[in-house]
TrEMBL record:
It comes from Spraguea lophii (strain 42_110) (Microsporidian parasite). Residues 91-192 form the Disease resistance R13L4/SHOC-2-like LRR domain. This is Leucine rich repeat protein. Gene3D superfamilies: Ribonuclease Inhibitor. It holds the Pfam family LRR_14. PANTHER family: LEUCINE-RICH REPEAT-CONTAINING PROTEIN (PTHR48051:SF54), PTHR48051. InterPro entries: Leu-rich_rpt, Leu-rich_rpt_typical-subtyp, LRR_dom_sf, LRR_domain-containing, LRR_R13L4/SHOC2-like.
């Protein structure tokens, strides 16, 4: 989860240019004074010079992104940033990623209008000092570089709002002056494991000069400006088993990503963040998730993806405002009131948990959610309908169940479900009481074992789409074409040879029928003639316009995946 500020400008003009040793006219258009003596010496003197870049101009100003660069310093073997770009002093955003840069020229300080700088994935072994002269800089990306410390001069960047220094594997030291930046709102320290090894990564040195305050010179780290200004922090993938007390100072945090660490429980220190709205603890080692009363009552998003959770306990008065809960790829086997009772929940992800039990929990939700379930078998499903708060339900089963199961036994009078997908559930028929689902608009039962298509949809006045593809259907109920609201009937990849003759009397002329990949007969065998069945060639021409089928006659049964 990336918390860093992102501009979404409306592009007014976007052009791509290429500079070479012999052709550098394009850069002249971007320079206020393009005819200064010696301005292009760096290009002219390097026969291998190549620079491909894009220029975007929008309502926020000018953005330059260098895409490809060949300006090798023969002494160090790395690319040099072309000094000519320092003459483009109206740049707002400069993107210099993956260019093998090791340093920036002194002329870089001319870019005084720069507000965003991305130097990620380069070869900087020292923090580029010239950056500290860019006093309007708001966003700085330095991920995937090789420097080992954030120097004290960082305090000069008074307007800095977002700093990303993740995946700097040599980083061992951050000067405290970083936390004096009163406008700093977002900080990314992901995958800096050396930095967190000693549980205390703040250097004792404090930068000072005649122009900048030196509060906390006695190493009193209790009142840094950023303690109040920081809103979002990312410290994922740092092998942390305990939450560092230092981060508890960021009392106004709204977003925190501590995923990919070694936590075995939700750190109790997180309760101190009363303003927290987004919390990501994914890829942890939490087996038993316990969230007690009063915890995270302002939280809107909780991500617990792939933590190995086997048991879930959420107290009645916890997570009262939660809207998004991600529990995908865990080891949960029971779906119960712990989740159903979250009244404000809008987005629930619990896929890749194989449920063997669903608790009976009668409850109606005003704002229905989408739910994707993997069940041991179809016998687990019926209890889900006690919870009348699902508008879209997608179910797959891992095993077949040969018992007679009344899937819709507990459907309430006014179930809110509009979309139901029971594909890959080993079904051999559709239960007759599906007609209880009076609000159902889309029903999918593809990749099952249904042989006879019965019209069990009588009284369903909202049904628009019916998908029975990839089954074993040979017979179709004559009245299936009389469902007045039906718009799509997908019968592709079945075993249909002949059609009910009353298809020619079909009143629903809006119905689109897919009969592709069926062994449709072009003619009827006189010896087995049945007046109630007709071939595809006998279908009325006006009806045939609404049918998709294989016209070549070249057909083979699809491989049966339901064995």
């Amino acid at each position: 989860m990336n918390f860093l500020l992102v501009f979404s400008p409306i592009l007014v003009n976007c052009n791509r240019y290429k500079i070479t040793h012999s052709n550098y006219d394009s850069i002249k258009r971007l320079i206020p004074k393009p005819y200064k003596i010696g301005l292009y010496d760096e290009i002219i003197k390097n026969p291998d010079f190549l620079c491909s870049f894009k220029v975007n101009e929008n309502e926020y100003g000018k953005e330059i992104k260098i895409i490809e660069l060949n300006n090798i310093d023969l002494e160090i073997g790395n690319n040099l940033f072309p000094e000519i770009f320092c003459e483009c002093n109206d740049i707002k955003r400069l993107l210099l990623t993956s260019l093998a840069l090791t340093k920036l020229p002194n002329q870089f300080e001319k870019l005084q209008e720069l507000e965003e700088l991305n130097l990620s994935d380069n070869e900087f072994k020292e923090f580029p000092q010239v950056i500290f002269s860019l006093l309007k800089l708001k966003i700085l990306y330095l991920d995937f570089n090789k420097f080992d410390m954030i120097p004290p001069e960082i305090i000069r960047l008074n307007n800095l709002e977002a700093l990303s220094i993740g995946y700097c594997y040599n980083l061992i030291n951050i000067n405290p002056n970083l936390y004096k930046l009163k406008n700093l709102k977002e900080l990314n320290l992901s995958s800096n494991r050396l930095l967190f090894e000693n549980n205390d990564f703040i250097s004792c040195s404090v930068y000072s000069d005649n122009h900048y305050s030196t509060e906390n010179e006695n190493n009193n780290y209790t009142d840094f400006a950023s303690y109040k200004s920081l809103k979002k922090v990312i410290i994922r993938n740092n092998n942390l088993s305990m939450f560092l007390k230092f981060f508890c100072n960021f009392i106004n945090l709204e977003g925190l990503n501590i995923s990919g660490n070694l936590f075995e429980e939700v750190p109790h220190e997180l309760q101190s963040f009363s303003n927290l709205k987004i919390l990501d603890i994914s890829y942890s080692h939490i087996k038993n998730l316990i969230i007690k009363n009063g915890m995270f009552n302002n939280l809107l998003v909780l991500n617990l993806y792939s933590c190995g959770i086997t048991e879930l306990s959420i107290s009645d008065n916890a997570l009262q405002n939660l809207e998004t809960l991600d529990l995908e790829y865990n080891n949960l086997s029971k779906l119960d009131r712990n989740i159903f009772q979250l009244k404000r929940l809008k987005n629930l992800s619990i896929y890749e948990n194989i449920f063997t039990e669903i608790e009976k929990f009668p409850c109606e939700k005003d704002d229905p959610i989408k739910l994707c379930l993997i069940l041991k078998d179809i016998s687990v499903l019926p209890n889900i309908f006690y919870f009348n708060g699902i508008n879209k339900l997608i179910v797959t089963c891992k095993e077949r169940n040969n018992n007679e199961i009344d899937i819709f036994e507990y459907v309430p009078t006014n179930l809110k479900t509009k979309y139901l997908d029971l594909s890959d559930c080993f079904l051999i028929n559709i239960p007759h009481n599906i007609s209880k689902l009076i609000n159902l608009e889309t029903f999918k039962v593809a990749f099952n074992r249904i042989i006879i298509l019965e019209n069990v949809f009588v009284g369903m006045t909202s049904l628009k789409s019916l998908d029975l593809s990839f089954n074993r259907i040979t017979n179709i109920d004559r009245s299936i074409f009389d469902i007045a609201t039906l718009e799509i009937l997908d019968l592709s990849s079945n075993r249909i040879e002949l059609l009910p003759s009353n298809i020619n009397n079909m009143r629903n002329r809006n119905l689109q029928i897919n009969l592709c990949s069926n062994p449709l007969q072009a003619e009827i065998d006189i010896n087995s003639f049945n007046s109630r069945l007709i071939s595809i060639e006998q279908v009325n021409e006006n009806i045939l316009r609404n049918i998709i089928y294989d016209r070549t006659g070249a057909f083979r049964f699809p491989e049966d995946i339901n064995l």
